[in-house]
Each structure stands twice: as C-alpha cells, then as structure tokens.
TrEMBL record:
Pfam families, per the entry: TPR_16
Leader sequence segment: 1-19
SUPFAM superfamilies documented for this protein: TPR-like (SSF48452)
Protein name as catalogued: Tetratricopeptide repeat protein
Keywords: Signal, TPR repeat
Amino acid sequence: MKYFVIIALVIGSLSHAVAQQPTTKDLYQTAKNFMQQGDYDNATLVFNNVLKQEPDNAAILKDFAYLNCLKRDYPKAISIGKYLTEKPDADVQAYQVLGIAYKGSKDYASCSKLYQIALAKYPNSGILYNEYGELLALDNNLPIAIQAWETGIAKDPNYANNYYNAVMYFGRFDKNLLWQLLYGEIFINLESNTQRTAEIKSLLLDGYKKLYTDYDVEALSTDLKLTFFERSIYENLAKTKAITSTGVTPENITAIRTRFVLDWFYNKMDERQPYPLFNHHQFLIREGLFDAYNQWLFGAAASPSAYQIWLNTHDKEAAAFKQYQQNKVFKLSK
C-alpha cells in the first residue's frame, strides 16, 4: 500500500510540474525582461524557445530582430527583418527594426531603399520620417535629413523625435534660432520628463539669451528672405526688447512671451498665421498657469536653487500647473 501511495505522489508531482509549464506569453515576457536587463544571452535562449512554439508570431519576431541589433548580430537581424517586411501586412515597426539593422551594418543604400518603400506604404508615419532623417544624417546628407524631419513633423505632429532632431540640426548646422525655439518648446511639451527634456530646456534658455544679444530682431522683422510668419514673429519680439534691459531671466522671458501672445491675438495673427503653440500659450494665460509653465520651462535651467525657491513661494501656482500636466495630454492637430 505504501508503494502505491509513493507512486501516486510522484505521478501527482509530475502532473503538477507539467501543468506549471510556462505559457508562450510567460516565456515571451521573460525574454523581454532579459533583453531590458541587458542579459542578451538569456534573452536569446528564451526567444528561441518561444519561437519554437510560435515561429510566425510577428510581434515576437520583431523583438527578436531588435535583440539581434542590440547584440550587433546584424546579419541575423536583417534576415528576420526581411522576412517580416516581405509580408503583405508588414507594419511600421517591422520596417523600423530592419532599418536599424541596415544602419548598424552601415548598408545605407539598402536602408534608403527600404525607407522609400516604407514611406510609400505609410506616408504619414512620423517614426519612419525620423528614421529616414537619421539615416541621411549618418550618410552626411544633412540638408535632406532636415527635410525628412520637418516632413515628419507636418505629417505626424505628435511624434517627438522629429522635433528633437530638428532642434539639434538647427542648433549645430543651420543656426536658425527661431525654429530651434519653436520646435524645442513643442518637444518639451511632448516629452516632458526625460534627460533629453532637460537638455532642450537648457538650449531653449540659451536661445532666448542669444535672441536678444546676437540677433537684430528689428532687422529680421523686415527681412524678405524670411517667410511672412517668421517676419511677423520677429516684429512682435522687437517690441519686447526693452524688457531684457535687466537680463534674460525666467521672469523676463515670461513677460516677453505674455506680451507676445497678447499682441499676436489682438492683431488677429492667429487667423492669418495659426500656430498651435501660441494657442497653447493663450490657453495657459487664460487659466492663470503661464507663469508656472514658464518657470517649468526655464527655471531649473537658469538656476535650480532659484527655481526651488520659486516653487516654495508659489506653491498654489505650482500645484495647479502640476495637476494640469497630469490631467491633460499635450496634443497637436495636423
């Protein structure tokens, strides 16, 4: 009788072990966890086991291809990426991961052809325009790269990376300060809490300083090489120059921008030259949040200690703006 009990217990344990075998979903999550932790060997091992169960799962294959990019096994990543993009239902992410593999292997010609095919299929994809711009930059074709990023901004205005790359391009190569400021602020609103956000906030503050020290805004307001929109902005900014007599500080920038918005809408420029960022400013002024917003943009970049003092002495305004940010997602329409 004792032996039968032991055998039954063993069989029960084996049955329990079989019942507890991880599902494909569990294995897939484990593989992604290993990949996120940088343990690429274990990630590969588990991905191989997952793909034995679901060899044609596109989501799993895309992640496995990206893992091989991280491992710098670009031939493997390209092989998987080609298989995915040859499918009739290939999505943007499939083209993106194959593009990453091509760029990693420095096969820029194949990558360029890939993006042209992908953009013909997905002409409104901000992701693909951004990736294509980055490829062109790698291939030292910066004048076309900025065109790709700006097209991506126009086609998909809520995708942040095109703004970031455009800001960096204008700052380093074109020296177009106006668009550096406009794109930079939109980027910060779209991606509001990353290391890149802090980087662009500093560039934004430096940009406003340069605007009133290195640029003649009055002359720019009549420069016929600029668009009517650009000239109109400089014309409004020229009226605010006296505010900077005591320096370009977060408080003075707030005053400059408040006057700018009031003049812009008073003169009905929003009807002639609509721009969503200025509508955003008008809304914040109306809601009593514009001071806190500008402190958030420029305060820490100018002086972390002074910004902390502002937060401590304007706790209600700071709390109201924080609540606004938590409850409302910044969105742009095409």
